[in-house]
Amino acid sequence: MTIDFEDQDNMVKQEALTQGVPNARYIHSSRTLPGPEDVDNWIKQVIEAMTRPLTEKEKESGRWAPPQPRVLFEGTLEEAETFYQQTKDIPFPVDAPLAVYTDGFPIRVPTEKRVREMLTGTSHKPDEIITYLSDRPPSRGRERNKGNPVLFQPMNWTATVEKVAINAVMAGCKPEHLPVVLAIAQSECGTGTTNFPSQAVCLSGPIVKEIRMNTGVGHLGPGSTANGPIGRAYQLMAINLGGAVPGVNRMGCHGSPLNNGGTCYAENADGLPPGWEGLNEELGFKKDESVVMVQENIGGGVQGSQFSPGGYRAFQKSGHGGIARRFDVKGKPGPHNWLEYIVPDLWATREGGFTFIMVPEMARHLYDFGFKTKDEVYDWLYKQSFEPLKRYRNRSWPDRSNNGWMGIERTSGKYWKELSDDYMVPVINDPSDNCIIIAGGEEEACVQLGGGRGTAYSIDVWR
Amino acid sequence: MAEKDTMYKCLNPVGIQVPVDIFPLAPRLDSLDGKTICLSICGEPDITIPLEKRLKSDYPDVNWTTKKSYTPYPVQLSDEEMKTCDGLIEGVAW
């Protein structure tokens, strides 16, 4: 017996099917009625659903095994382009046609020949099943042990190396991109939750120069034939290998422009200040190893730069302008810690880690100010995130993340309900929740992704 | 044959669905009176608190047991509870 919102009917039906109970009974609750009125409307239906005898259909058993041909279409390229662009009408809460195999944009048709060429980018065999390469925590009741097939989300489908290559072809990738796309596939290519989930991937290590990624001006925007197709490959894998369909099982209310075509960026390791580790080293790999960090749930979207680059320069060069006035350093040249300009308001409406994508010059200012390692910046940010419990209680997500305030507060070891209103608690769990990436052009700007450090996967194992 | 008329085999990008065994729904109860029903609830208290109150007040002849979490994930029933419960209402929200 399931109680869910009407607009999630498609999701409930699909989830029930994949769990082997396609005829599960369910009723609708309301998004807007107060709880007591809502319950009054359907409580008898709940009891009735537990006692009404099963229909013949509800007694059915068997096996669901949809056909899965390797060759999906035969015809001319023009016919194939039309075929892969086919749409399906998705009912409420979408009520519009959506692409079945693509992200809505035209794709490069995955002919057998093109896929074969793509597979030259890896030493792995086409029929190799993508498996977890290390033990990962269980998720939604699923074991994710090393050697088990990766279950792509949300449909828990599996994939071979060839399936990943097919999607890489469709995305416009080159064979040298395939190890990156295979590493991304390790992540299950999730699409997050119901509000504003965005996904991005960030590369670090020698691969960045090998495939000539754009880490400079416009690196998050269009133009690169590496950044763009690799980011797109994530989204195509989510659609095709994960079976994600908006309004059916991909319920991000607004979608996200970061997912519209995909987002892939990379670290400019040459821009790191002396002593600052690259992302690969931060994530437990060696400096000469290539990795991709997958950020599956950037719930806070992108926060743009908060100050004018000219104002920033005046602040650092000579202590002039609005930022200098705020810091009371008028007339005093830098280096100043410019992060103070955006902290603590950074967490005004959202808890958790952020990813700071800053240009090399601004990272160098932090170094010159006194942060000789990234960890020192992370520790400083963590300390800035503390606020009185009275204020922390007035946030939304902690009701849930702290299990209704029933458990123990981490930093004190005491029950939440024993703590005084002025007890200071952090709004991020750990200093390493935040992440710093050096990239971008010369203009003094930093953007924050509203989501912290992702999970890293080795690219080199897929070469 | 002109290039535009060349026929191509185009491959399937869709993930592999492992066959799913389909199960019949669990047999229904004739009546809930005198039965032990576990109410395993998680998620939005605006719904789950009044639901729990109404079930207990409107159906006093049912032996209600409750498992509760404010997270999105229901508290799993123990093996013993699965043996002793006649039915389960599992509310999942968030």
Q: Which structural category do the helix and sheet elements of chain B fall into?
A: alpha/beta
- The number of E-state strands of chain B comes to 5
Average pLDDT figure of chain B: 88
Uncertain stretches of chain A: none
Question: Helix- and strand-based class of chain A?
Answer: alpha+beta
End-to-end C-alpha gap of chain B: 59 Å
Mind describing the biggest β-sheet of chain B?
A: 3 strands, parallel
Cross-sheet strand order for the largest sheet of chain B: 4-3-5
Annotation field: number of helices of chain B: 2
Helicity range of chain B: 10-25%
Q: Can you put this structure into words, describing what you see?
A:
The complex is a heterodimer of chains A (463) and B (94). Chain A is α+β, with helices and mostly antiparallel strands. Chain A has 15 helices and 18 strands. Chain A has a four-stranded mixed β-sheet with strand order 10-9-11-18. In chain A, helix 4 (112-118) crosses helix 5 (161-171) and helix 5 packs across helix 6 (178-185). The mean pLDDT of chain A is 94. By secondary structure, chain B is an alpha/beta fold. Chain B is 21% helix and 28% strand. A three-stranded parallel β-sheet of chain B has the order 4-3-5, with helices on one face. Chain B is elongated, with a radius of gyration of 23 Å. The termini of chain B are far apart. The chains are: A alpha+beta (463), B alpha/beta (94). At the A-B interface, strand 1, helix 2, strand 3, strand 4 and helix 3 of A face strand 1, strand 2, helix 1 and strand 5 of B.
